[in-house]
Design brief:
The complex is a heterodimer of chains A (485) and B (482). Helix content of chain A is 40%, strand content 20%. Chain A is α+β, with helices and mostly antiparallel strands and 485 residues long. In chain A, strand 6 (106-115) and strand 7 (118-131) form a beta hairpin. Chain A has a 9-stranded mixed sheet with strand order 2-6-7-10-1-11-12-13-14. With 482 residues, chain B is α/β, with parallel strands linked by helices. Chain B has 3 domains: 1-229, Amidase signature (AS) enzymes, CATH 3.90.1300; 259-298 and 381-474, no CATH class; 306-364, no CATH class. Helices cover 39% and strands 13% of the residues of chain B. Chain B is built from 15 helices and 11 strands. Chain B has helices spanning 2-5, 9-18, 23-41, 49-64, 155-162, 179-185, 219-229, 273-288, 301-319, 337-348, 351-364, 370-393, 416-420, 427-432, 460-474, and strands at 44-47, 76-79, 117-121, 168-173, 188-191, 211-216, 259-263, 292-296, 396-400, 436-444, 447-454. Chain B has an 11-stranded mixed sheet with strand order 1-3-2-4-6-5-10-11-9-7-8, with helices on both faces. In chain B, helix 3 (23-41) packs antiparallel against helix 4. The A-B interface holds A 45, 48-57, 84, 86, 88, 90, 93-96, 145, 151, 153, 279, 281-283, 286-289 and B 82-83, 89, 91, 96, 99, 101-103, 105, 199-204, 206-208, 234-238, 314-315, 317-318, 320-324, 326-328, 337-338, 341, 361, 364-366, 369, 373. Chain B: Heterotrimer of A, B and C subunits. Chain B: This is Glutamyl-tRNA(Gln) amidotransferase subunit A. Chain B: The active site is at residues 79, 153, 177.
Chain lengths: 485, 482
């Protein structure tokens, strides 16, 4: 119903992402980037803004910024300038944030977002580098400054490298916004620029939301701050669109404000009016020289870039004959994709996909293990697929084998040997089938009369008798032949 | 010991090396001198007599084993804007009265653990001023005349050297703060090429202009002290990765064939006649020594001051934002964070600091940025072009360092613009980032007059050679005063 209503208006949505870069050290000093360490244990005169301390730009962060820019089809600037964004806040030790303003590291670009059966092209306005602020902790309240008995500052986060990515207002719906955020995460992870985990705050998203007027002109836009999960990106924007629609439907005017989405109540709340917006007094940071990003520097980074998810997905479909969906599952996890490619080089690619995206991934997820930490090697997987393919192990027995290999790291053939999981030989199976038919005469009769549903029951008996080691296909074939149906 | 006090730093260094004098004896002599005269002069915010002795003992130990660099044992005064580990660093401000840095400025690293430091020299608050009257710790007096200012902002450093409270000093120069006080106190002051000396640990005033420079008894001492502090520093992105030459080599090679241009715009009626006379005499001396002397124009020289007083305050307004009472230094308790900021900064900063914060905030604010800050940067580019054109024809430019000799304490405190004019000769080189040195050229009305020589980027060896010749032409003899 809501969706219907929304279609009478046209939503105009642009997103701003703050991404924590996967560097070992901070943006302008050598302090380690950490999460969850005791407060103020990773600080130095530079990130504490002590008098006389000076920033030195993190080369790796610049490289990651360029990589992200290339992945998003941006123009990497030949010259980028750090600027000071001046404002007072206790979590900002220098009284300014070093950011980029009119000469960012990347301009223009786009992102092709898979969305249902189609692809939405979302323009990228700019991409720039900056440092994160520290973290204020207000004591004696639920984290709000108002009414707190005291405020503490943890500077561990202060100076952490951030990348800001601003999209064009090209996004047509809350669902598309979520898909955009998701796809951006996949790309950033794939190229190793960021873990981009929203729950850990490594990827933060603000949205600029407006509704286009019936005459086609742009409506007033509001800014929705700090949505910290993909679901909340969608729900927050939907809530804000609904709020704006209701205002317009009531003949009111949308005010330009900054809002916060509260997932508990599924409502947006005003943070501050734009008329109180800061004058940041940007000017070029005199402590840092302009970055000069030569074509050869950018070219070298381009050559070292890992394959992007879109390209990899297309290649998997092409080379291994996977469906786009199957390929997508593999590509969303870079390690899984690499694992798959190793297996697919020596085993049937389709079987490899089934095993890896199905059983193997389920085991990883259940145990919270990463591909590289798992005891299952590509070699194990090739062997297992070979055992099934040659009929030495039934599919269901092979699942049991994989469970054991996952736990112990033994070779699949050893497991089969030790646990007696090898397929039942043809002669033996013949006898078992005969036995099942004779001890279940009623059911056998019903199959003879064409009731195929009962075949499943008889199959179950065969499996029971063989402790699951029978080749299901062959057993079924035998049953049907013997019962003449 | 009076003999010891009248030696230059390199002479003392020679005696230390030869074992004729110990570093401890030198430090004791400097400490005694500080005790004797600093009650009148107020050259120091903080004196460190025990630290000087302790470090002197250490250098004496090293000297016995050889391998001590020639500057290490010579007692020094350090401007209180340079961070010194374990020694409070106030910047002449109340807001940092209790502040003790955790690290030493990079410029001090070449002194082994740290220099034999007699104290932290007084200065205009956050290096903003031309008279050292803006210090929260009281004004410094000119050793030539205790009723007069020593110049600023490195007035404490200049007075300390002129009075023999140490053989040399480190100052900082943003728009003339090494050269002008050197001129007013009758010593040598060198502002190196921007980026030649690391700014790490120099508490920023105008980041794009700040330079640390030697303040010494003669040009050779300047070369020696520059040798100690120059070099690339990975902690300072603006420090140049250019090899440090031997500044003492060829110092006495003379100026035969050197092309010297006297800057016409800085020799007009805005400069006191007595000052112009001394500059002309020194220029004539250089000509007599074999230099080709002519006239050169820096057409935008007078706009330099106006551009400077936009750019430097703009950077100050941002650089001083960190003094907010949150992490270190003064905090005035109040209800709420904004009240705390306001009261802390109200109580912590003096009038000149506040004036420049306001000027800079205005110049950077939206709607005024283009009219002021952006415009000033364009002027800066013009000045850079002026210098480039001038260096196409001349190796060294000559001008007065300051438009007048030392003025009386209080004479200009009510007129900030008159005070700002003190920097008119010094500021162009600052905006262009080129090296410039002031040498004592003679006296006018019984007070020292500084002659400024300017070179192109990283031509310090040539500049020092010309300054050495100018010094000889002037024939000015150093003696501790009062």
């Amino acid at each position: 119903m809501q969706t219907q209503q929304r279609r009478t208006y046209q939503a105009v949505i642009g997103l701003e992402f703050h991404v924590h870069l996967a560097t070992r050290t901070k943006m302008f000093c050598g302090c380690r980037v950490t999460y969850g360490e005791p407060p103020n244990t990773h600080t130095c005169p530079v990130c504490l803004g002590h008098p006389g301390a000076l920033p030195v730009a993190n080369e790796r962060a610049i490289e990651l910024g360029v990589m992200a820019g290339l992945a998003l089809n941006c123009d990497v600037s030949e010259r980028a300038v750090f600027a000071r964004k001046n404002y007072f806040y206790p979590d900002l030790p220098k009284g300014y944030q070093i950011s980029q303003f009119d000469e960012p590291i990347c301009l223009g670009g786009h992102l092709d977002v898979p969305f249902g059966d189609e692809t939405i092209r979302v323009g990228i306005t700019r991409l720039h580098l900056e440092e994160d602020a520290a973290k204020n902790v207000h004591v004696g309240t639920s984290g709000r400054m108002h009414g707190s008995v005291g405020s503490l500052v943890d500077f561990n986060r202060g100076g952490t490298p951030l990348m800001e990515i601003v999209t064009e207002p090209d996004i047509p719906s809350p669902e598309a916004a979520r898909a955009t955020a998701n796809h951006l995460k996949d790309i950033l992870r794939a190229i190793g620029v960021s873990e981009a985990d929203m729950e850990k705050g490594q990827l933060r998203c603000d949205a600029n939301v407006s509704i286009r007027n019936p005459d086609g002109s742009f409506g007033t836009k509001t800014e929705l701050k700090n949505m910290n999960s993909f679901r909340f990106v969608e729900k927050g924007i939907a809530a804000e669109l609904q709020r704006q629609e209701e205002i317009l439907a009531g003949g009111g005017r949308v005010e330009q404000t900054t809002l916060h989405y509260d997932p508990e109540t599924d409502e947006v709340h005003e943070l501050r009016s734009k008329e109180f917006a800061h004058d940041y007094r940007y000017f070029p940071e005199p402590d840092l020289l302009p970055l000069e990003l030569s074509a050869s520097y950018v070219g070298e980074i381009g050559e070292r870039m890992p394959e992007l998810p879109d390209a990899m997905r297309a290649r998997f479909v092409e080379r291994y004959g996977l469906s786009p969906y199957e390929a997508g599952v593999m590509v969303s996890d870079r390690e899984l994709a690499a694992f798959y490619e190793e297996v697919a080089s020596e085993a049937d690619p389709k079987q490899a996909s089934n095993w890896i995206s199905g059983d193997f991934r389920a085991l990883l997820n259940e145990s919270g293990t990463g591909v590289s930490d798992s005891k299952v090697t590509p070699g194990h997987m090739v062997e297992l697929i070979g055992l099934v393919g040659s009929g030495k192990v039934s599919r269901s027995a092979a699942r049991t084998v994989l469970d054991v290999v996952f736990k112990t790291g033994e070779r699949p053939s050893e497991v089969v040997e030790r646990e007696g999981l090898g397929s039942v030989e043809a002669d033996e199976l013949d006898g078992v089938v005969d036995g099942v038919i004779s001890s279940n005469p009623d059911e056998a009769e019903r199959v003879r009369n064409g009731d195929k549903k009962v075949v499943g029951f008889l199959m179950g008996q065969v499996m029971k008798a063989t402790r699951g080691n029978a080749d299901g296909g062959r057993a079924r074939e035998l049953l049907l032949r013997k019962l003449g149906s | 010991m009076a003999d010891l006090l009248s030696l230059t730093a390199h002479e003392l260094s020679g005696k230390l090396d030869a074992g004729e004098v110990s570093v401890r004896e030198a430090a004791e002599a400097a400490n005694r001198r500080v005790e004797e005269v600093d009650g009148d002069l107020n050259s120091f915010v903080t004196t460190t007599p025990e630290l000087a002795l302790e470090r002197a003992g250490r250098v004496d130990g090293l000297l016995r084993n050889g391998g001590v660099r020639p500057w290490e044992g010579v007692p020094i005064a350090v401007k209180d804007v340079l961070s010194t580990r374990g020694v409070r660093t106030t910047c002449g401000s109340k807001i940092l009265e209790e502040f003790t840095p955790l690290y030493d400025a990079s410029a001090l690293k070449n002194f082994g653990d740290a220099p034999v430091m007699v104290g932290k020299a007084n200065m205009d608050e956050f290096a903003m001023g031309s008279s050292t009257e803006n210090s929260a710790y009281g004004p410094t007096k000119n050793p030539w005349d205790l009723n007069r200012v020593p110049g600023g902002s490195s007035g404490g450093s200049a007075a300390a050297v002129a009075a023999g409270e140490g053989w040399w000093a480190l100052g900082t120069d943003t728009g003339g703060s090494v050269r002008q006080p050197a001129a007013l106190c009758g010593i040598v002051g060198l502002k190196p090429t921007y980026g030649r000396v690391s700014r790490y640990g120099l508490i920023s005033f105008g980041s794009s202009l700040d330079c640390i420079g030697p303040m010494t008894r003669d040009v050779r001492d300047s070369a020696l002290l520059l040798q100690a502090i120059a070099g690339h520093d990975p902690r300072d992105s603006t420090s140049a990765n250019v090899e440090v030459p031997d500044y003492l080599a060829g110092l006495d090679a003379g100026v035969e064939g050197l092309r010297v241009g006297v800057v016409t715009e800085l020799m007009d009626e805005r400069i006191d006649a007595g000052v112009r006379e001394v500059v002309s005499k020194v220029a004539a001396g250089l000509e007599a020594a074999g230099a080709e002397v002519g006239e050169v124009s820096l057409p935008h020289a007078y706009y330099a001051l106006e551009a400077y007083y936009i750019i430097a305050p703009a950077e100050v307004s941002s650089n001083l934002a960190r003094f907010d009472g949150v992490r270190y230094g003064l905090r005035v308790q109040a209800d709420g964070v904004h009240e705390m900021y306001r009261k802390t900064r109200e109580a912590g900063f003096g009038a000149e600091a506040k004036r420049r914060i306001m000027l800079g905030t205005y110049a950077l604010s939206s709607g005024y940025y283009d009219a002021y800050y952006a415009q000033a940067q364009k002027v800066r580019t013009k000045i850079v072009e002026d210098f480039r054109d001038a260096y196409a024809r001349y190796d060294v430019l000559v001008s007065p360092t300051s438009p007048s000799v030392a003025f009386e304490i209080g004479a200009k405190t009510d007129d900030p613009l008159a005070m700002y004019l003190q920097d008119i000769c010094a500021v162009p080189a600052s905006l262009a980032g080129v090296p410039a040195i002031s040498i004592p050229g003679g006296l006018a009305d019984g007070l020292p007059v500084g002659v400024q020589l300017m070179g192109d980027h990283f031509t310090e060896p040539m500049l020092l050679r010309a300054a050495r010749a100018a010094e000889q032409a002037a024939g000015f003899e150093f003696a501790p005063r009062p």
